[in-house]
Amino acid sequence: MNRDEKQDMVTALAEIFNGAQVGLLIDYIGLNVAEISDLRRKLHESDANMRVLKNRIAKLAIKDTPFSALEEHLSKPRALIYGGEPVASAKVLSKFLKENNKISYILGVLVTPTGNKVLEDAEMRALGALPSREQLLVKLLFVMQSPPAQFVRTLNEIPAKFVRTLAALAASKEGGEAGA
């Protein structure tokens, strides 16, 4: 590989490191080509990607990015799983880990507006166990919808109770007149 190609790779990796919301560094040794392809396909379906890193090039690209905490772990063959939706990529990886124990988490980084959070193994597994964005939105909508719905039912109960009272009063008057 010539110098220009290496520089292009550094630039491409730097764009990934600066643009991703989450990056999960994994040890992929032990996976065959079919398993790596399967993982990449599943990640692609959830708008995430996987890139096998060349350590020297990755170390150059990672400087002054949100993922600089990963630099010291770029010593062995590693792959980076990255994307814009943190939970989706972590879910795919967690599910893949349950089916295939040949890979392991190394370290992760979650980019937030308040700062970057380095994720250890347990935190990455917890991120993968969270409900998806759609499931959280449905729950939020249900919680937001519940008080107004209860208020409407309460308001509706007032005239309904009045009508039932009138019906009971009318029935008792009819029963009283029929018996007289």
Model description:
The chain has 2 domains: 3-130, Alpha-Beta Plaits (2-Layer Sandwich); 131-180. It starts with a helix and ends with a helix. Strand 4 (104-112) and strand 5 form a beta hairpin. It has helices at residues 3-19, 33-45, 55-62, 86-99, 121-129, 133-179, and strands at residues 22-27, 48-53, 78-83, 104-112, 115-119. It has 6 helices and 5 strands. The mean pLDDT is 85. With 180 residues, the protein is of the alpha+beta class. The protein is 60% helix and 18% strand. Strands 2-3-1-4-5 form a 5-stranded antiparallel beta sheet, with helices on both faces.
What is the helix content?
55-70%
State the CATH topology of the largest domain.
Answer: Alpha-Beta Plaits
**Structural class, from helix and strand content?**
alpha+beta
CA-CA gap between termini: 110 Å
- By DSSP (H or I, 4+ residues per run), the number of helices equals 6
CATH top level assignment of the largest domain? Alpha Beta
Write down the overall geometry. elongated
Outline of this structure?
With 180 residues, the chain is α+β, with helices and mostly antiparallel strands.
Keywords:
5-stranded antiparallel β-sheet, 180 residues, Alpha-Beta Plaits, 5 strands, 2 domains
Secondary-structure map with pairings?
Layout: H1 3-19, E1 22-27, H2 33-45, E2 48-53, H3 55-62, E3 78-83, H4 86-99, E4 104-112, E5 115-119, H5 121-129, H6 133-179
Antiparallel strand pairs: 1-3, 1-4, 2-3, 4-5
Helix pairs in contact: 1-3, 4-5
